Structure formats: structure tokens, C-alpha cells
Amino acid sequence: MRIIVAGHTAVTADEFVELALGTPLELWLGVEGESEMERAARMDAARDILAENPELPDRASVVAAETVEALAPDLFNVVTLPRNASRRVRAGKRAAA
Fold first, then answer.
1. How far is 27 from 43, CA to CA, in rounded Å?
2. Which of 37, 43, 45, 86 has its CA 20 to 30 A from that of 51?
3. What is the mean pLDDT of each run of 10 residues along the chain (97 residues)?
């Protein structure tokens, strides 16, 4: 399946989110092994972006929900499993004894 966001083709889910939000995921999630100075700079940049784009958290939620809806429709396809009647009878006999 090809996903095109703002004229760019997203190959992976990460690319889709980055294109939809307009920021790299590493800005929000960090990178393994980053120093405290790198983390502080990343957090400052994230705060600046949020200050300039207060709708970004809502947009991120919409992107996440649309992605789940489009790519994993069976995720919420819940089926109730039948209960085993013999299991209930055995449990009841033990409790009565």
C-alpha cells in the first residue's frame, strides 16, 4: 500500500508520521544514548515547536487514530469466546465440597 502525504510517499509507518506531523519522531521520542545536554536541547526545540503550533498534539492524535483505523482494522474486531460449561461444573463441585 502506498501512502502519500503532502506529495511525498511514505514507505514506513515512521515516515508517515513524520510527514503528517512535519517533525522527525526523534524530536519527541529521543534517541538512545543521548546526553543530558542533547536531551535538554531536544526538549527546548520541542517546547518551541509546541508554542508555535498549539494544534500539534491534537493533530498527532488524529494521525495516530487514522493510522490505526487504516492499517489495523482488525485490531478492534473483538470476538467473545464461548465459555466451557464443563469447567464451570467442576469449579462448582470443588467449592461445594
1. 8
2. 37
3. 59 77 85 94 93 88 79 71 66 56
SS (H, E, C) 23-82: CCHHHHHCCCCCCHHHHHHHHHHHHHHHHHCCCHHHHHHHHHHHHHHHHCHHHHCCCCCC
Q: What grid cell was written down for 94?
A: 470443588
Q: Tell me the one-letter amino acid at 86.
A: S
Q: What is the pTM of this model?
A: 0.53
Residue pair 75/68 in contact by the 8 Å Cβ criterion: yes
The answer to whether 39 touches 45, Cβ cutoff 8 Å, is no
